Amino acid sequence: MSKAHEVTAWIDLNIIDKSWGQSLTKEFDDKKAKYLIESMPVPNTITWSISNIANNIDEEFVCQLLLLMTYEQFFQFVSVCNTNKNNISDLFQTINDKYKSKKSITIVIIGTNSSLNLSKLLTRSSLIKSYDLDNIYIELQLQYNCIIKYAEKDHDLALLILSFTKAITVAPEKRLKNLSPFSFHVDTMKQYKPIRIDIDQTNKTLEQLWKQILQQFSQMGMEQAQAIINQYGTIQALVQAYKQCQTENDAKLLLADIQVRRGAGVLTTTRKIGPQMSEKIWKLFTSTNGNDLL
Amino acid sequence: MASSSSSSISLIKPIRKRRLNSPNDHIMVLVKEWYNDAKANGTQTIHCYRKALRSLEKYPLRLETGSDCRILHGFGEKICEMIDQNLNINKKPITPTKTLYKTVSMSNFDNRQKPNTIINLSDNDEDKTAPPPAKQAKLTNETKKIKKTCSAGPKLFNNPTNMTIQSTTISTLLGIVDSPVKTNLSQPKSVQTLKAGSFHITLCIDNAEASRPTQKILLEHLTKNSINFDVRKLNIGDFLWTVRPNDPDIKVEAILDYIIERKRLDDLSKSIIDGRYNEQKFRLKQCGITNLIYLVESLKNTNAPGILTPAALNQAIVNTQVAEDFFVREVSNPVEMANYLVTMTKHLIAHFKDKTLHILNDTDMSNNYKTSYNDSDHYVMTFDSFNSGTIKSKPPTVKEMFARVLMQIAGMSVDNVLALTEAYPTPLKLLEAYNQCSNEKERKLMLSSIKKITSNRKLGKVLSTAIEMLFNNLSYQ
C-alpha cells in the first residue's frame, strides 16, 4: 500500500561543501531517505517538505527548520547578543521572512556533542563566558522555544538530520493519537464499545447506536437517552421535528420537557431532560459551523 | 530486461490473469485497449503494449497519472502522454527541482525492481540511462554544479503554502503549521489580580526529586545562588514555579505556565518500553500548563542490558520535540541540571517583575486562555487547582462532538473520523449532502471514497452504507 504522505529533506548547498557535510549524501542514500540539495533561502539551513496524496497536498514545507553553525560561529553569535539585545530576534525574523512562513527553528552546533563539552571549549580568551551560554539557552527557550542540538562530526550530523526526517514522517500519526475526540471529557470518558451496524438485516443495532450516541453528552445517562429515543426513535425523526418548529427557541427546548422514567424508590430532583441538555442536542444537529461550542 | 516470450498463449495470459482489486485498473484498461487495437491492426506496437501491460501488472502500488508510470519499464514518454490525455490530466511543467530529485536521490524507487528498471532520468537530462552505483558520487557533483546556477525550488519558495483553502486540522497534523495559538475570544474574569511587583516567585520541587541523594547537589547549588525553593508533593511534574503575593494577608497561590519533568536516560528507556512514557506525556498535556519541558539527564555511557540503543533513545527525544510539542533540554550531569534550573528561575523572576498576573478560576482556565511571552498581562491558575487535577478541558465543539458520535460506529477509527469531519464538519452538513443525492443508492455510496488522513485507504462501501442508514432511516426497526 502506498504511503499517504512522503517527506523530503531539503539541504542547503553550502552544507555539503563543508567538511562536516561530506558524508550526508552517502548516508542518506544508504538509508534510502529522500533529500534534495538546493540553494535554500537562508544558507546552512535544512528543512523538509511533505506531500499528502490523500488530501491532494502536492508538496508543502513543514515548519521545522535546522540552522547549522560551528561552535566558533555560535560563540560569536552569543558575544554579539551581549551587546545587541535584538540579535536573536533579528536572526529569527530574517529566517521567517526569507522562508515566507513562521519556522520552528532548532539550532545545530557542529564540532561538539553536548552543551557540557561546548562550555569546555571556551578558553580564557573567549569573548564570552559560560554563564553567557547559560543565559542564551534560556532566552532561546523562553522567547523562541528554540532547542539546541549538537553534532560532533559529519556522521553525527547525518544521523541527526535522518532522525529529524524520521520524526517528521511519523509525526502525523503521533499527533493523530493526541487529537480530540480523545482529548476532551477525559475525566468523564465513558467506556463504550463501538457498535457494529448490520446493514443487511434489520435488528437492534441502529437503535442501540442511537442510544449510545446520545449518551456521549456529559450528564446524559441511560434513562435520559432512552426517554429521548422513545419520543424520537431515529435521527431523522429528531431532525424533522426540529424543522417543524415555529421558532428557534421552540427547537432549542424541544426535548426539555421529556420525562425521564426513573426506577421506583430512587429520589432525584430532575426528572426531565432540561433546557440545557435539550439545547446542546439541538446545537449538535442544527449547527452549520463545526467550531461552535456545545 | 524482462525476457519476453512470444508464444501466443502468453499473449493472452496477461490479459486474463487479472488481479483482484488491481490498484491501477484505470491505466490497465487503457493499455489493454491499445493492445487490442494493435493486435487487430497487426502493427508492431503490439510488443510495446504487451511489455507495458506486463510491467504494469507486476507493480503493486497505485499510480495516479501517466507521468507517474515513467518509473516502470516499458513506459516511455509517448505512452505516458497518451495515458495522461485519456485521463484528462494536465501535465505539470517539469521544474529543475524535479530533475534534481530524480538525479541526486537515487534511492526513491522500489527495492524489488531490478537495477535496469531504474527511474528514467531523461526528463530534462542528457543522460538516457541510469549510471551504475559506482558513478553516483560523480553524478552528484556534476548536478551540484548545475544546481548552483539555478535558483532553487521556485514553486515552493515563492508560494510556500500552495493550497488556497488550508484546513488547519490537516496542516497541523502534517506539521505544516505549528500548533496554532488559541486566540482568546473574550476577556476572562480573574478571581484575583496580582499587580506587577506585588508577588514573588519560588521554585517548587517535587518531594521525590528532592530526596534523591544526587539532588543534594541541586539543593546546594540553589542555595549558593540564593534561589528560594520549597519542596512539596506534586501530583504531576518535578519542577514548577509558584507565585505568592508579597502581602502575607492575601492567601492565594498561583503557578507560572511552566512545568518540568525530569528524566534520566535509563529511566526514559524503561518507561518507553513499558508504556509509562506515553501515559506521562498524555497526563502532562492534560494538566493545563502550556509550556511542557522534559529535562533529560544523559549518561553518555549507557550500556546496561535491556536498555534501548542510543539511537532509539535519540529518536524518541527528537520525536517528542517534533511531534508532541514538548521542549526537551538535555544535560550531562547534575551540576549542569542545577545550573539550568538556577538560570531559568532567575530569568523567570526577572521577566515577570513587571508583569500583571490574573488568576483564573477553573472553568476559565480550561478555556485555555493563552498569553504570549512578552504580553504585560498573563493568566495563571492556582496551585491547588493544578495539583488536584480539576482543570478540565474546554467544552467540545460541534465538530468534535460529531467525531465522538461517529466513533461509536464500529469500524470508524480516529483517522477516518477525522477525514469525514473535515469534509462534513457537522451532522447538518452531512444531512444536507445526503439531500443533494438523487437516490438511495447514491446516498449509500456517498462516503465510500473518502480517504483516511494518514493512509490511502478509503472509508469503503460498508461503512458508508451504515452511516447512511443511521442518518437517513425513518425507522430503526
UniProtKB/TrEMBL annotation, chain A:
Subcellular location: Nucleus
Gene3D superfamilies registered for this protein in UniProt: 3.40.50.10130, Crossover junction endonuclease EME1, DNA-binding domain
GO MF annotation terms: crossover junction DNA endonuclease activity; metal ion binding
Cofactor(s) required, per the database record: Mg(2+)
Subcellular location, principal: nucleus
Listed GO biological process terms: double-strand break repair; mitotic intra-S DNA damage checkpoint signaling; replication fork processing; resolution of meiotic recombination intermediates
One Gene Ontology cellular component annotation held by this UniProt entry: Holliday junction resolvase complex
Keyword RNA-binding found: no
One Pfam family recorded for the sequence: EME1-MUS81_C
UniProt entry keywords in alphabetical sequence: DNA damage, DNA recombination, DNA repair, Endonuclease, Hydrolase, Magnesium, Meiosis, Metal-binding, Nuclease, Nucleus
Family the entry assigns: Belongs to the EME1/MMS4 family.
Protein name: ERCC4 domain-containing protein
Phylogenetic lineage: Eukaryota, Metazoa, Spiralia, Gnathifera, Rotifera
TrEMBL record, chain B:
GO cellular component: Holliday junction resolvase complex; nucleus
The keyword NAD belongs to this UniProt entry's keyword annotation: no
An example Gene Ontology biological process: mitotic intra-S DNA damage checkpoint signaling
Keywords linked to the UniProt accession: DNA damage, DNA recombination, DNA repair, Endonuclease, Hydrolase, Magnesium, Metal-binding, Nuclease, Nucleus
Region annotation (Disordered) ranges: 112-135
Residue ranges, compositional bias (Polar residues): 112-122
Subcellular location: Nucleus
UniProt-listed PANTHER family: CLASS II CROSSOVER JUNCTION ENDONUCLEASE MUS81 (PTHR13451), CROSSOVER JUNCTION ENDONUCLEASE MUS81 (PTHR13451:SF0)
Major localization listed first in the record, in broad terms: nucleus
Family indicated by similarity: Belongs to the XPF family.
The protein's enzyme class: hydrolase
InterPro entries found in the cross-reference section: DNA_pol_lamdba_lyase_dom_sf (IPR027421), EME1/EME2_C (IPR042530), ERCC4_domain (IPR006166), HHH_MUS81 (IPR010996), Mus81 (IPR033309), Restrct_endonuc-II-like (IPR011335), XPF_nuclease_Mus81 (IPR047416)
GO molecular function, one term: 3'-flap endonuclease activity
Pfam families per the UniProt record, alphabetical: EME1-MUS81_C, ERCC4, HHH_8
Domain ERCC4 span(s) in chain numbering: 202-300
Oligomeric form and interacting partners: Interacts with EME1.
Entry EC no(s): 3.1.22.-
Domain of life per record: Eukaryota
This protein's name: Crossover junction endonuclease MUS81
Cofactor: Mg(2+)
Function: Interacts with EME1 to form a DNA structure-specific endonuclease with substrate preference for branched DNA structures with a 5'-end at the branch nick. Typical substrates include 3'-flap structures, D-loops, replication forks and nicked Holliday junctions. May be required in mitosis for the processing of stalled or collapsed replication fork intermediates. May be required in meiosis for the repair of meiosis-specific double strand breaks subsequent to single-end invasion (SEI).
